Amino acid sequence: AQSVTQLDSHVSVSEGTPVLLRCNYSSSYSPSLFWYVQHPNKGLQLLLKYTSAATLVKGINGFEAEFKKSETSFHLTKPSAHMSDAAEYFCVVSDASGGSYIPTFGRGTSLIVHP
Amino acid sequence: EAGVTQSPTHLIKTRGQQATLRCSPISGHTSVYWYQQALGLGLQFLLWYDEGEERNRGNFPPRFSGRQFPNYSSELNVNALELEDSALYLCASSYLRGPSYEQYFGPGTRLTVT
Fold first, then answer.
1. 3-class SS at B100?
2. pLDDT tens profile A18-73
3. Nearest residue in chain B measured CA to CA from A47
4. Could you point out which of A79, A95, B41, B79 has its C-alpha 20 to 30 Å from the C-alpha of B60?
């Protein structure tokens, strides 16, 4: 079985400061992990994904995430927040359990960026 | 390359009516997924179609159904609408089936049931 927990429902930062969005996962298999972003009234856009290659994954718009198996975490970071980063972020886990290939989405973290 | 498209953008129905939502995947993608995003509940998996077949469904009642056409487009039907069906319905497509393949999302259909 797979599950994912986003540890913060809201994160508030000032423009130009670092961003940290936390995600813990549970999986019985070697999981694939994803981060998606959703801007207001839009669909979801893939930021980055981990699929058992390099543990530090770089994505679009300066975001990156590190897969830590020992901590079952996949936290999303960005060195310097921009106003346009304000959005909802979803951590997603997917494994081959039961052959269903259905990903599990976290509840989302709302990133608020103050000028 | 065109992305995933969904229609209509907004849909207003009254309780007890039926709603039909449509989705066109990215060209070459054979898998289509449907999700419900209700306020405060995150994304809930509804249905997965691949190569014209329903492969999996989430924990939703049978009045949520759908199909996938030979051109891989898909429609979601919701019968006997209830107020709690009001949500953003998202369609996603992927090129291949498997846990490591990302999904590409459409902009969604906002369904309001009054």
1. coil
2. 999 999 999 877 888 999 999 988 889 999 999 877 889 999 999 999 999 999 99
3. B102
4. A95
